[in-house]
Amino acid sequence: MTTHDAIITVADLHKHFKVYKHHRGPGSALRNLFTRAHHWVRAVDGITFEIQRGELVGYIGPNGAGKSTTIKMLTGLLVPTGGELHVAGRVPWRERKAHVAQIGAVFGQRTTLWWDLPTIESLELLRYIYKVPQARFRRNLDDFRALLELDPFLDTPVRSLSLGQRMRADLCAALLHDPPLLFLDEPTIGLDVVAKERIRQFIQHINADRGTTVILTTHDLSDVERLCRRVMIIDHGHLLFDGRLEALRERFGGQRELVVDMAEAPREVAVEGAEVVAREGLRVTYRFHGGEVSAAELIGRLSRRYPIRDLQVREPEIADTVRRIYEERLLEQ
Amino acid sequence: MRSLLDALDLYRRLIGMQIRSELAYRTSFVLGILAQGLNNMAEFATLAMILSRFEGIGGWSLREVAFLYGMVSAAFGLMDLIFSAFDPATFGLDVRRGTFDRLLLRPTNVTLQVLGSKFLLRRLGRIGQGIAILAVAVPRVSWTPLKVLYLPFVVISIVLFFGALFIIGSTITFWTVESVEAINILTYGGTEMMSYPMHIYGRGLRRFFTYIVPAIFMNYYPALYFLDMPDPLGSPPYMAFLAPLAGIGMMAVALAFWNYGIRHYASTGS
Question: Shortest CB distance from A32 goes to which of B107, B178, B269?
Fold first, then answer.
Protein backbone atom coordinates (compact mmCIF):
# COMPACT_ATOMS: atom_id res chain seq x y z
CA MET A 1 0.00 0.00 0.00
CA THR A 2 1.24 3.45 -0.86
CA THR A 3 0.36 6.20 1.52
CA HIS A 4 0.28 9.04 -0.99
CA ASP A 5 -3.07 8.00 -2.40
CA ALA A 6 -4.88 7.63 0.88
CA ILE A 7 -8.31 9.26 0.88
CA ILE A 8 -8.74 8.73 4.63
CA THR A 9 -5.99 8.90 7.23
CA VAL A 10 -6.83 8.30 10.85
CA ALA A 11 -4.22 8.29 13.60
CA ASP A 12 -4.88 7.49 17.25
CA LEU A 13 -8.44 8.74 16.95
CA HIS A 14 -10.42 9.13 20.17
CA LYS A 15 -13.96 10.08 20.98
CA HIS A 16 -15.04 10.14 24.60
CA PHE A 17 -18.55 10.96 25.72
CA LYS A 18 -19.59 12.42 29.02
CA VAL A 19 -22.52 10.39 30.24
CA TYR A 20 -24.67 11.93 32.94
CA LYS A 21 -26.40 9.96 35.61
CA HIS A 22 -30.04 10.88 35.70
CA HIS A 23 -32.00 11.19 38.89
CA ARG A 24 -35.43 9.68 38.90
CA GLY A 25 -38.59 10.36 40.83
CA PRO A 26 -40.14 13.59 42.11
CA GLY A 27 -38.15 16.75 41.55
CA SER A 28 -35.73 14.83 39.35
CA ALA A 29 -35.77 17.41 36.54
CA LEU A 30 -34.62 20.10 38.93
CA ARG A 31 -31.97 17.91 40.50
CA ASN A 32 -30.70 16.86 37.09
CA LEU A 33 -30.23 20.52 36.29
CA PHE A 34 -27.92 21.20 39.21
CA THR A 35 -26.27 18.01 40.32
CA ARG A 36 -25.03 16.10 37.35
CA ALA A 37 -22.76 13.21 38.21
CA HIS A 38 -21.07 11.84 35.14
CA HIS A 39 -18.57 9.33 33.87
CA TRP A 40 -16.70 9.06 30.59
CA VAL A 41 -17.38 6.51 27.89
CA ARG A 42 -14.57 5.88 25.42
CA ALA A 43 -16.68 5.18 22.34
CA VAL A 44 -13.63 5.29 20.08
CA ASP A 45 -10.44 4.62 21.98
CA GLY A 46 -7.39 5.16 19.83
CA ILE A 47 -7.85 3.75 16.35
CA THR A 48 -5.43 4.13 13.44
CA PHE A 49 -5.98 3.22 9.81
CA GLU A 50 -5.68 4.41 6.25
CA ILE A 51 -8.02 3.91 3.36
CA GLN A 52 -6.74 4.21 -0.21
CA ARG A 53 -8.71 5.68 -3.08
CA GLY A 54 -10.83 3.05 -4.76
CA GLU A 55 -11.03 0.65 -1.84
CA LEU A 56 -14.26 -1.01 -0.76
CA VAL A 57 -13.97 -1.58 2.95
CA GLY A 58 -16.30 -3.36 5.32
CA TYR A 59 -16.46 -1.76 8.74
CA ILE A 60 -18.14 -4.06 11.20
CA GLY A 61 -18.69 -4.47 14.90
CA PRO A 62 -21.47 -5.20 17.38
CA ASN A 63 -23.91 -2.50 18.53
CA GLY A 64 -22.25 0.17 20.63
CA ALA A 65 -18.78 -0.86 19.46
CA GLY A 66 -17.90 2.62 18.19
CA LYS A 67 -18.85 2.05 14.55
CA SER A 68 -21.29 4.89 14.10
CA THR A 69 -19.18 7.23 16.24
CA THR A 70 -16.30 6.66 13.81
CA ILE A 71 -18.56 7.26 10.82
CA LYS A 72 -19.90 10.45 12.42
CA MET A 73 -16.35 11.73 12.81
CA LEU A 74 -15.44 10.77 9.24
CA THR A 75 -18.52 12.58 7.90
CA GLY A 76 -17.80 15.67 9.98
CA LEU A 77 -20.81 15.39 12.31
CA LEU A 78 -18.66 14.90 15.39
CA VAL A 79 -15.48 16.56 16.57
CA PRO A 80 -12.90 14.02 17.82
CA THR A 81 -11.72 14.18 21.43
CA GLY A 82 -8.18 13.44 20.27
CA GLY A 83 -6.05 12.13 17.46
CA GLU A 84 -5.82 12.99 13.80
CA LEU A 85 -8.32 12.63 11.05
CA HIS A 86 -8.05 13.71 7.42
CA VAL A 87 -10.45 12.97 4.61
CA ALA A 88 -9.29 14.00 1.15
CA GLY A 89 -6.80 16.34 2.78
CA ARG A 90 -9.42 18.07 4.94
CA VAL A 91 -10.30 17.99 8.60
CA PRO A 92 -14.00 17.14 8.21
CA TRP A 93 -15.57 19.11 11.06
CA ARG A 94 -13.45 22.19 10.43
CA GLU A 95 -14.61 22.61 6.84
CA ARG A 96 -18.07 21.11 6.97
CA LYS A 97 -19.48 22.42 3.68
CA ALA A 98 -16.39 21.69 1.57
CA HIS A 99 -16.13 18.25 3.16
CA VAL A 100 -19.72 17.10 2.76
CA ALA A 101 -19.73 18.25 -0.88
CA GLN A 102 -17.11 15.52 -1.47
CA ILE A 103 -18.90 12.65 0.21
CA GLY A 104 -22.11 10.72 -0.24
CA ALA A 105 -23.91 8.98 2.58
CA VAL A 106 -26.78 6.53 2.76
CA PHE A 107 -28.21 5.51 6.10
CA GLY A 108 -30.36 2.47 5.53
CA GLN A 109 -32.87 3.27 8.23
CA ARG A 110 -33.57 6.86 7.21
CA THR A 111 -34.16 8.55 3.91
CA THR A 112 -32.70 11.84 2.81
CA LEU A 113 -35.57 12.37 0.39
CA TRP A 114 -38.68 14.51 0.81
CA TRP A 115 -41.29 12.08 2.05
CA ASP A 116 -44.50 13.35 0.45
CA LEU A 117 -43.18 14.36 -2.96
CA PRO A 118 -42.33 12.46 -6.16
CA THR A 119 -38.79 11.07 -6.03
CA ILE A 120 -37.61 13.15 -8.98
CA GLU A 121 -38.36 16.40 -7.11
CA SER A 122 -35.96 15.43 -4.31
CA LEU A 123 -33.28 14.63 -6.86
CA GLU A 124 -33.79 17.98 -8.59
CA LEU A 125 -33.51 19.88 -5.31
CA LEU A 126 -30.36 17.96 -4.35
CA ARG A 127 -28.91 18.86 -7.73
CA TYR A 128 -29.44 22.50 -6.78
CA ILE A 129 -28.04 22.11 -3.24
CA TYR A 130 -24.91 20.29 -4.46
CA LYS A 131 -24.57 22.73 -7.40
CA VAL A 132 -24.31 19.89 -9.92
CA PRO A 133 -24.17 21.29 -13.48
CA GLN A 134 -27.32 20.45 -15.44
CA ALA A 135 -25.49 18.37 -18.07
CA ARG A 136 -23.66 16.25 -15.52
CA PHE A 137 -26.87 15.79 -13.55
CA ARG A 138 -28.63 14.53 -16.69
CA ARG A 139 -25.77 12.14 -17.48
CA ASN A 140 -25.60 10.74 -13.95
CA LEU A 141 -29.36 10.46 -13.63
CA ASP A 142 -29.55 8.57 -16.94
CA ASP A 143 -26.83 6.20 -15.75
CA PHE A 144 -28.50 5.54 -12.42
CA ARG A 145 -31.95 5.22 -13.95
CA ALA A 146 -30.62 2.32 -15.99
CA LEU A 147 -28.46 0.74 -13.28
CA LEU A 148 -30.97 1.06 -10.46
CA GLU A 149 -34.10 0.75 -12.59
CA LEU A 150 -35.56 3.96 -11.23
CA ASP A 151 -37.98 4.68 -14.05
CA PRO A 152 -41.04 2.89 -12.64
CA PHE A 153 -41.10 5.07 -9.56
CA LEU A 154 -39.42 8.41 -10.32
CA ASP A 155 -42.81 10.12 -10.21
CA THR A 156 -44.06 8.24 -7.16
CA PRO A 157 -44.07 9.97 -3.77
CA VAL A 158 -41.25 8.66 -1.61
CA ARG A 159 -43.67 7.56 1.12
CA SER A 160 -45.26 5.08 -1.34
CA LEU A 161 -41.98 3.39 -2.34
CA SER A 162 -41.06 -0.09 -1.19
CA LEU A 163 -38.01 -0.35 1.02
CA GLY A 164 -35.90 -1.62 -1.86
CA GLN A 165 -37.06 1.16 -4.20
CA ARG A 166 -36.41 3.76 -1.53
CA MET A 167 -32.92 2.43 -1.00
CA ARG A 168 -32.22 2.65 -4.73
CA ALA A 169 -33.54 6.21 -4.82
CA ASP A 170 -31.36 7.12 -1.82
CA LEU A 171 -28.29 5.60 -3.48
CA CYS A 172 -28.97 7.66 -6.58
CA ALA A 173 -29.43 10.79 -4.45
CA ALA A 174 -26.14 10.18 -2.65
CA LEU A 175 -24.17 9.84 -5.89
CA LEU A 176 -25.58 12.57 -8.14
CA HIS A 177 -22.71 14.91 -7.27
CA ASP A 178 -20.02 12.30 -8.08
CA PRO A 179 -18.57 12.03 -4.56
CA PRO A 180 -15.19 10.25 -4.52
CA LEU A 181 -16.14 8.76 -1.13
CA LEU A 182 -19.37 7.00 -0.20
CA PHE A 183 -20.54 5.94 3.26
CA LEU A 184 -23.12 3.19 3.36
CA ASP A 185 -24.73 2.26 6.65
CA GLU A 186 -26.79 -0.93 6.52
CA PRO A 187 -27.74 -0.51 2.85
CA THR A 188 -29.42 -3.91 2.62
CA ILE A 189 -31.24 -3.95 5.94
CA GLY A 190 -34.73 -5.40 5.69
CA LEU A 191 -34.45 -6.26 1.99
CA ASP A 192 -35.31 -9.58 0.36
CA VAL A 193 -32.64 -11.63 -1.40
CA VAL A 194 -33.31 -10.24 -4.86
CA ALA A 195 -33.35 -6.63 -3.74
CA LYS A 196 -30.19 -7.20 -1.70
CA GLU A 197 -28.40 -8.63 -4.68
CA ARG A 198 -29.39 -5.69 -6.87
CA ILE A 199 -28.01 -3.22 -4.31
CA ARG A 200 -24.79 -5.20 -3.97
CA GLN A 201 -24.26 -5.32 -7.71
CA PHE A 202 -24.73 -1.58 -7.86
CA ILE A 203 -22.23 -0.95 -5.06
CA GLN A 204 -19.73 -3.17 -6.82
CA HIS A 205 -20.35 -1.36 -10.06
CA ILE A 206 -19.77 2.17 -8.79
CA ASN A 207 -16.66 1.02 -6.95
CA ALA A 208 -15.21 -0.68 -10.02
CA ASP A 209 -16.46 1.68 -12.71
CA ARG A 210 -16.39 5.09 -11.09
CA GLY A 211 -13.58 4.33 -8.69
CA THR A 212 -15.73 5.49 -5.78
CA THR A 213 -14.19 4.61 -2.43
CA VAL A 214 -16.84 2.89 -0.33
CA ILE A 215 -17.02 2.41 3.43
CA LEU A 216 -19.68 -0.12 4.24
CA THR A 217 -20.99 -0.67 7.76
CA THR A 218 -23.37 -3.53 8.09
CA HIS A 219 -24.69 -6.29 10.29
CA ASP A 220 -25.17 -8.53 7.31
CA LEU A 221 -21.81 -10.20 6.90
CA SER A 222 -22.81 -11.67 3.59
CA ASP A 223 -22.64 -8.07 2.29
CA VAL A 224 -19.05 -7.91 3.43
CA GLU A 225 -18.24 -11.34 2.09
CA ARG A 226 -19.73 -10.54 -1.27
CA LEU A 227 -18.26 -7.06 -1.67
CA CYS A 228 -15.23 -6.30 0.47
CA ARG A 229 -11.66 -7.42 0.12
CA ARG A 230 -10.73 -5.58 3.25
CA VAL A 231 -12.52 -5.69 6.53
CA MET A 232 -12.11 -3.71 9.73
CA ILE A 233 -13.59 -4.94 12.99
CA ILE A 234 -14.17 -2.58 15.88
CA ASP A 235 -15.27 -3.48 19.40
CA HIS A 236 -15.20 -1.48 22.62
CA GLY A 237 -13.66 1.41 20.72
CA HIS A 238 -10.63 -0.59 19.57
CA LEU A 239 -9.82 -1.76 16.08
CA LEU A 240 -9.64 -5.53 16.58
CA PHE A 241 -8.80 -6.50 13.05
CA ASP A 242 -7.86 -4.70 9.88
CA GLY A 243 -6.92 -6.77 6.87
CA ARG A 244 -8.02 -9.00 4.08
CA LEU A 245 -11.10 -11.11 4.55
CA GLU A 246 -9.17 -14.32 3.77
CA ALA A 247 -6.63 -13.49 6.46
CA LEU A 248 -9.43 -13.16 8.94
CA ARG A 249 -10.76 -16.52 7.91
CA GLU A 250 -7.36 -18.18 8.09
CA ARG A 251 -6.51 -16.83 11.50
CA PHE A 252 -9.82 -17.22 13.17
CA GLY A 253 -11.71 -19.47 10.83
CA GLY A 254 -11.57 -22.18 13.45
CA GLN A 255 -13.44 -25.25 12.41
CA ARG A 256 -13.51 -26.25 8.77
CA GLU A 257 -15.29 -29.37 7.63
CA LEU A 258 -14.25 -32.09 5.20
CA VAL A 259 -16.98 -34.32 3.86
CA VAL A 260 -15.68 -37.58 2.38
CA ASP A 261 -17.56 -40.20 0.37
CA MET A 262 -15.73 -43.51 0.73
CA ALA A 263 -15.62 -46.05 -2.13
CA GLU A 264 -16.39 -48.85 0.34
CA ALA A 265 -17.30 -48.87 3.99
CA PRO A 266 -14.11 -49.00 6.08
CA ARG A 267 -14.13 -50.58 9.54
CA GLU A 268 -12.84 -47.45 11.14
CA VAL A 269 -12.40 -43.92 9.74
CA ALA A 270 -10.10 -42.10 12.18
CA VAL A 271 -7.33 -39.77 11.01
CA GLU A 272 -4.95 -37.59 13.05
CA GLY A 273 -5.61 -33.82 12.97
CA ALA A 274 -9.37 -34.12 12.57
CA GLU A 275 -12.31 -35.52 14.45
CA VAL A 276 -15.23 -37.40 13.03
CA VAL A 277 -18.46 -35.51 13.60
CA ALA A 278 -20.86 -37.57 11.51
CA ARG A 279 -20.92 -40.92 9.78
CA GLU A 280 -23.77 -41.89 7.53
CA GLY A 281 -23.31 -44.93 5.31
CA LEU A 282 -20.36 -44.22 3.07
CA ARG A 283 -20.28 -40.49 3.93
CA VAL A 284 -17.99 -39.34 6.75
CA THR A 285 -17.74 -35.75 7.97
CA TYR A 286 -14.50 -34.60 9.61
CA ARG A 287 -13.93 -31.36 11.45
CA PHE A 288 -10.48 -29.84 11.64
CA HIS A 289 -8.86 -26.58 12.68
CA GLY A 290 -7.64 -24.47 9.79
CA GLY A 291 -4.69 -23.19 11.78
CA GLU A 292 -3.38 -26.67 12.65
CA VAL A 293 -3.65 -28.70 9.50
CA SER A 294 -4.33 -27.73 5.90
CA ALA A 295 -7.08 -29.35 3.87
CA ALA A 296 -4.50 -30.72 1.41
CA GLU A 297 -2.53 -32.43 4.18
CA LEU A 298 -5.63 -33.98 5.61
CA ILE A 299 -6.82 -35.26 2.23
CA GLY A 300 -3.35 -36.74 1.69
CA ARG A 301 -3.48 -38.62 4.98
CA LEU A 302 -6.97 -39.88 4.30
CA SER A 303 -6.35 -41.06 0.74
CA ARG A 304 -3.27 -43.00 1.83
CA ARG A 305 -5.38 -44.90 4.33
CA TYR A 306 -8.87 -45.16 2.83
CA PRO A 307 -10.41 -45.61 -0.63
CA ILE A 308 -11.95 -42.23 -1.39
CA ARG A 309 -14.50 -41.62 -4.10
CA ASP A 310 -15.33 -37.94 -3.62
CA LEU A 311 -14.76 -35.13 -1.17
CA GLN A 312 -15.75 -31.58 -0.37
CA VAL A 313 -14.36 -28.89 1.97
CA ARG A 314 -16.85 -26.70 3.83
CA GLU A 315 -15.65 -23.26 4.87
CA PRO A 316 -16.96 -21.78 8.11
CA GLU A 317 -19.49 -19.00 7.72
CA ILE A 318 -17.84 -15.62 8.09
CA ALA A 319 -20.67 -14.72 10.45
CA ASP A 320 -19.64 -17.55 12.79
CA THR A 321 -16.05 -16.43 12.62
CA VAL A 322 -16.87 -12.89 13.56
CA ARG A 323 -19.22 -13.98 16.30
CA ARG A 324 -16.43 -16.07 17.77
CA ILE A 325 -14.09 -13.09 17.63
CA TYR A 326 -16.53 -11.01 19.66
CA GLU A 327 -17.50 -13.76 22.07
CA GLU A 328 -14.12 -15.24 22.81
CA ARG A 329 -12.36 -11.89 22.53
CA LEU A 330 -9.80 -13.54 20.29
CA LEU A 331 -8.29 -10.23 19.37
CA GLU A 332 -8.17 -8.45 22.70
CA GLN A 333 -4.82 -6.77 23.27
CA MET B 1 -25.57 40.52 -1.59
CA ARG B 2 -24.84 37.54 -3.78
CA SER B 3 -24.98 35.16 -0.82
CA LEU B 4 -28.20 36.76 0.42
CA LEU B 5 -29.83 36.10 -2.94
CA ASP B 6 -28.55 32.52 -2.87
CA ALA B 7 -29.98 32.09 0.61
CA LEU B 8 -33.38 33.42 -0.47
CA ASP B 9 -33.36 31.16 -3.52
CA LEU B 10 -32.57 28.09 -1.40
CA TYR B 11 -35.25 29.07 1.13
CA ARG B 12 -37.81 29.56 -1.63
CA ARG B 13 -37.08 26.10 -3.03
CA LEU B 14 -37.19 24.38 0.36
CA ILE B 15 -40.46 26.06 1.24
CA GLY B 16 -41.84 25.16 -2.17
CA MET B 17 -41.21 21.49 -1.35
CA GLN B 18 -43.02 21.88 1.98
CA ILE B 19 -46.04 23.63 0.47
CA ARG B 20 -46.39 21.01 -2.25
CA SER B 21 -46.05 18.28 0.40
CA GLU B 22 -48.77 19.80 2.53
CA LEU B 23 -51.10 20.26 -0.43
CA ALA B 24 -50.64 16.58 -1.28
CA TYR B 25 -53.14 15.83 1.48
CA ARG B 26 -55.89 18.20 0.46
CA THR B 27 -58.71 17.14 2.79
CA SER B 28 -56.55 17.01 5.87
CA PHE B 29 -55.15 20.40 4.89
CA VAL B 30 -58.55 22.07 4.64
CA LEU B 31 -59.81 20.49 7.86
CA GLY B 32 -56.63 21.52 9.62
CA ILE B 33 -57.11 25.14 8.65
CA LEU B 34 -60.75 25.13 9.76
CA ALA B 35 -60.02 23.45 13.08
CA GLN B 36 -57.19 25.85 13.86
CA GLY B 37 -59.33 28.88 13.15
CA LEU B 38 -62.47 27.67 14.94
CA ASN B 39 -60.53 26.74 18.04
CA ASN B 40 -59.22 30.26 18.29
CA MET B 41 -62.55 31.85 17.52
CA ALA B 42 -64.22 29.85 20.30
CA GLU B 43 -61.65 31.07 22.78
CA PHE B 44 -62.26 34.66 21.85
CA ALA B 45 -66.04 34.23 21.92
CA THR B 46 -65.74 33.01 25.52
CA LEU B 47 -63.64 36.03 26.38
CA ALA B 48 -66.13 38.37 24.68
CA MET B 49 -69.00 36.96 26.74
CA ILE B 50 -67.10 37.42 29.97
CA LEU B 51 -66.12 40.96 29.02
CA SER B 52 -69.69 41.94 28.19
CA ARG B 53 -70.65 40.98 31.78
CA PHE B 54 -67.77 42.76 33.49
CA GLU B 55 -67.28 45.98 31.54
CA GLY B 56 -63.83 45.06 30.26
CA ILE B 57 -60.51 44.16 31.82
CA GLY B 58 -58.43 46.69 33.78
CA GLY B 59 -60.46 49.52 32.29
CA TRP B 60 -60.11 48.20 28.71
CA SER B 61 -63.21 47.63 26.60
CA LEU B 62 -63.88 44.59 24.43
CA ARG B 63 -62.64 46.35 21.28
CA GLU B 64 -59.48 47.39 23.02
CA VAL B 65 -58.72 43.91 24.32
CA ALA B 66 -59.52 42.59 20.82
CA PHE B 67 -56.60 44.65 19.53
CA LEU B 68 -54.17 42.90 21.90
CA TYR B 69 -55.75 39.50 21.41
CA GLY B 70 -56.02 39.61 17.62
CA MET B 71 -52.54 41.04 17.18
CA VAL B 72 -50.84 38.35 19.26
CA SER B 73 -52.94 35.61 17.78
CA ALA B 74 -52.27 36.56 14.16
CA ALA B 75 -48.58 37.22 14.76
CA PHE B 76 -48.06 33.99 16.71
CA GLY B 77 -49.83 32.06 13.93
CA LEU B 78 -47.55 33.68 11.35
CA MET B 79 -44.53 32.85 13.47
CA ASP B 80 -45.66 29.23 13.82
CA LEU B 81 -46.15 29.05 10.06
CA ILE B 82 -42.57 30.16 9.43
CA PHE B 83 -40.66 28.83 12.44
CA SER B 84 -42.48 25.57 13.20
CA ALA B 85 -39.34 23.53 12.46
CA PHE B 86 -37.85 25.24 15.50
CA ASP B 87 -40.71 24.18 17.77
CA PRO B 88 -38.60 22.86 20.68
CA ALA B 89 -40.85 19.84 21.25
CA THR B 90 -40.41 18.47 17.73
CA PHE B 91 -36.88 19.76 17.18
CA GLY B 92 -35.60 17.79 20.17
CA LEU B 93 -37.05 14.65 18.57
CA ASP B 94 -35.49 15.49 15.20
CA VAL B 95 -32.08 15.71 16.84
CA ARG B 96 -32.49 12.37 18.57
CA ARG B 97 -33.84 10.66 15.46
CA GLY B 98 -30.90 11.85 13.39
CA THR B 99 -33.02 14.04 11.10
CA PHE B 100 -30.89 17.00 12.06
CA ASP B 101 -27.67 15.11 11.17
CA ARG B 102 -29.05 14.62 7.70
CA LEU B 103 -29.12 18.39 7.22
CA LEU B 104 -25.53 18.70 8.43
CA LEU B 105 -24.48 16.30 5.65
CA ARG B 106 -25.56 18.73 2.93
CA PRO B 107 -23.17 21.42 1.75
CA THR B 108 -25.36 24.41 2.51
CA ASN B 109 -26.52 26.60 5.39
CA VAL B 110 -27.90 24.56 8.29
CA THR B 111 -30.16 27.22 9.79
CA LEU B 112 -31.88 27.81 6.45
CA GLN B 113 -32.34 24.08 6.00
CA VAL B 114 -34.01 23.74 9.39
CA LEU B 115 -36.19 26.76 8.65
CA GLY B 116 -37.10 25.23 5.29
CA SER B 117 -37.83 21.77 6.67
CA LYS B 118 -41.35 22.72 7.77
CA PHE B 119 -43.87 25.30 6.65
CA LEU B 120 -47.19 24.86 8.39
CA LEU B 121 -49.60 26.35 5.89
CA ARG B 122 -52.52 25.17 8.03
CA ARG B 123 -51.62 27.90 10.51
CA LEU B 124 -53.36 30.17 7.99
CA GLY B 125 -56.49 29.29 9.95
CA ARG B 126 -55.15 30.82 13.10
CA ILE B 127 -53.76 33.82 11.26
CA GLY B 128 -57.11 34.43 9.55
CA GLN B 129 -59.02 34.29 12.82
CA GLY B 130 -56.46 36.54 14.48
CA ILE B 131 -57.01 39.08 11.74
CA ALA B 132 -60.79 38.73 12.13
CA ILE B 133 -60.48 39.46 15.86
CA LEU B 134 -58.14 42.35 15.14
CA ALA B 135 -60.81 43.71 12.78
CA VAL B 136 -63.13 44.09 15.80
CA ALA B 137 -60.65 46.67 17.13
CA VAL B 138 -60.20 48.60 13.87
CA PRO B 139 -63.15 51.05 14.36
CA ARG B 140 -61.78 51.91 17.82
CA VAL B 141 -58.44 53.15 16.40
CA SER B 142 -58.16 56.73 15.10
CA TRP B 143 -55.93 55.87 12.17
CA THR B 144 -53.08 58.15 11.11
CA PRO B 145 -50.58 57.46 8.28
CA LEU B 146 -47.89 56.68 10.87
CA LYS B 147 -50.13 54.10 12.56
CA VAL B 148 -50.87 52.40 9.25
CA LEU B 149 -47.17 52.35 8.46
CA TYR B 150 -46.14 51.08 11.88
CA LEU B 151 -48.64 48.21 12.14
CA PRO B 152 -46.75 45.72 9.92
CA PHE B 153 -43.54 46.50 11.80
CA VAL B 154 -45.24 45.51 15.06
CA VAL B 155 -46.48 42.26 13.52
CA ILE B 156 -43.02 41.38 12.16
CA SER B 157 -41.45 42.26 15.51
CA ILE B 158 -43.77 39.88 17.37
CA VAL B 159 -42.99 37.16 14.80
CA LEU B 160 -39.26 37.70 15.43
CA PHE B 161 -39.84 37.74 19.18
CA PHE B 162 -41.64 34.38 19.31
CA GLY B 163 -39.38 32.93 16.61
CA ALA B 164 -36.42 33.80 18.82
CA LEU B 165 -38.02 32.00 21.78
CA PHE B 166 -38.53 28.92 19.57
CA ILE B 167 -34.90 28.99 18.43
CA ILE B 168 -33.63 29.39 22.00
CA GLY B 169 -35.84 26.51 23.12
CA SER B 170 -34.61 24.29 20.28
CA THR B 171 -31.01 25.13 21.03
CA ILE B 172 -31.48 24.07 24.65
CA THR B 173 -32.58 20.63 23.43
CA PHE B 174 -28.99 20.06 22.24
CA TRP B 175 -28.21 19.74 25.95
CA THR B 176 -31.44 18.42 27.42
CA VAL B 177 -35.01 17.77 26.33
CA GLU B 178 -36.26 18.16 29.88
CA SER B 179 -36.41 21.94 29.52
CA VAL B 180 -38.99 21.93 26.73
CA GLU B 181 -41.81 22.59 29.21
CA ALA B 182 -40.01 25.66 30.55
CA ILE B 183 -39.73 27.23 27.12
CA ASN B 184 -43.38 26.36 26.39
CA ILE B 185 -44.34 28.50 29.39
CA LEU B 186 -42.64 31.44 27.68
CA THR B 187 -44.11 30.86 24.22
CA TYR B 188 -47.61 29.55 24.79
CA GLY B 189 -47.85 31.23 28.20
CA GLY B 190 -46.45 34.39 26.63
CA THR B 191 -49.23 34.57 24.05
CA GLU B 192 -51.79 34.30 26.86
CA MET B 193 -50.09 37.03 28.89
CA MET B 194 -49.80 39.30 25.91
CA SER B 195 -53.46 38.90 25.03
CA TYR B 196 -54.45 41.08 28.00
CA PRO B 197 -53.37 44.56 29.14
CA MET B 198 -50.13 44.12 31.04
CA HIS B 199 -50.93 46.59 33.82
CA ILE B 200 -53.34 44.05 35.32
CA TYR B 201 -50.39 41.82 36.24
CA GLY B 202 -48.26 42.09 39.38
CA ARG B 203 -45.05 44.08 39.45
CA GLY B 204 -42.71 41.08 39.51
CA LEU B 205 -44.32 39.49 36.46
CA ARG B 206 -44.32 42.81 34.60
CA ARG B 207 -40.64 43.33 35.35
CA PHE B 208 -39.85 39.82 34.15
CA PHE B 209 -41.62 40.53 30.86
CA THR B 210 -39.80 43.86 30.54
CA TYR B 211 -36.20 43.11 31.43
CA ILE B 212 -35.74 39.35 31.05
CA VAL B 213 -38.13 38.60 28.19
CA PRO B 214 -39.14 41.90 26.63
CA ALA B 215 -42.72 40.87 25.80
CA ILE B 216 -44.22 44.12 27.10
CA PHE B 217 -42.64 46.06 24.21
CA MET B 218 -44.09 43.78 21.59
CA ASN B 219 -47.79 44.24 22.16
CA TYR B 220 -48.82 46.27 25.21
CA TYR B 221 -46.88 49.49 24.55
CA PRO B 222 -47.68 49.52 20.82
CA ALA B 223 -51.37 48.93 21.68
CA LEU B 224 -51.35 52.00 23.96
CA TYR B 225 -50.11 54.02 21.00
CA PHE B 226 -52.60 52.64 18.50
CA LEU B 227 -55.51 53.13 20.91
CA ASP B 228 -54.26 56.57 22.09
CA MET B 229 -54.34 55.51 25.71
CA PRO B 230 -51.96 56.79 28.37
CA ASP B 231 -49.97 54.19 30.24
CA PRO B 232 -51.55 53.88 33.70
CA LEU B 233 -48.04 53.22 34.96
CA GLY B 234 -46.69 56.40 33.40
CA SER B 235 -44.11 55.11 30.93
CA PRO B 236 -42.94 57.57 28.23
CA PRO B 237 -44.74 57.38 24.82
CA TYR B 238 -41.63 56.36 22.85
CA MET B 239 -41.89 52.92 24.50
CA ALA B 240 -44.43 52.08 21.79
CA PHE B 241 -41.70 52.22 19.17
CA LEU B 242 -39.21 49.88 20.78
CA ALA B 243 -40.92 46.75 19.41
CA PRO B 244 -38.69 46.39 16.30
CA LEU B 245 -35.59 46.93 18.40
CA ALA B 246 -36.67 44.31 20.95
CA GLY B 247 -37.70 41.86 18.20
CA ILE B 248 -34.46 42.17 16.27
CA GLY B 249 -32.41 42.10 19.48
CA MET B 250 -34.10 38.91 20.67
CA MET B 251 -33.53 37.26 17.29
CA ALA B 252 -29.85 38.27 17.27
CA VAL B 253 -29.35 36.77 20.73
CA ALA B 254 -31.24 33.62 19.71
CA LEU B 255 -29.17 33.09 16.54
CA ALA B 256 -25.90 33.61 18.41
CA PHE B 257 -26.99 31.03 20.98
CA TRP B 258 -28.11 28.69 18.19
CA ASN B 259 -24.73 28.85 16.44
CA TYR B 260 -23.02 28.19 19.75
CA GLY B 261 -25.38 25.23 20.27
CA ILE B 262 -24.52 23.71 16.89
CA ARG B 263 -20.80 23.87 17.72
CA HIS B 264 -21.47 22.26 21.08
CA TYR B 265 -23.56 19.55 19.39
CA ALA B 266 -20.70 18.65 17.04
CA SER B 267 -18.32 18.27 19.95
CA THR B 268 -20.62 16.18 22.14
CA GLY B 269 -23.02 14.51 19.75
CA SER B 270 -25.85 14.71 22.24
Answer: B178
